[in-house]
Amino acid sequence: MRIVVAGSSGLIGSALVLRLEAAGHQVVRLVRPGGAEQGIPWDPAAGAIAAAALEGADAVVNLAGRSIGERRWDEAERRLLRESRVGSTALLAGALAGLRRPPGVLLNASAVGYYGNRPGEALDESSRAGTGFFPELCAAWEAAAAPVAAAG
User: Fold this and answer.
1) Residue 107: which of 9, 12, 11 has the closest Cα?
2) Which of 20, 56, 83, 121 sits between 20 and 30 A of 103, alpha carbons compared?
């Protein structure tokens, strides 16, 4: 399979790429300007992606997003966290939705933070979102992938 991975240099992405390649899949990375890796160029901050290079991929895995554990979440950091997830996902989803031969699947990361801090409560996929910054970010992040679902 030809699998495109966004966020391939992160903690989860780097491990995923190794596993996919070991399993014999062709992994193509989405790469930002100035990076050392080869792959499909994209620049979410500039709203740019080489969409034609996504054509015919079997699957896309979107793990893109700024690390949540390295800095204090002041207003500036919250803005960067949101842009790195919602903006990049919207760019990727829009590009995928416009392809003639889109991938069969988009696996888009989100986070357990969707549920918020609810100690003692059993939560599952049918549970409602929590309240606060991170649950709202996760909901917006998931919604940014909607163009792919709408395109079928």
Assistant:
1) 12
2) 83
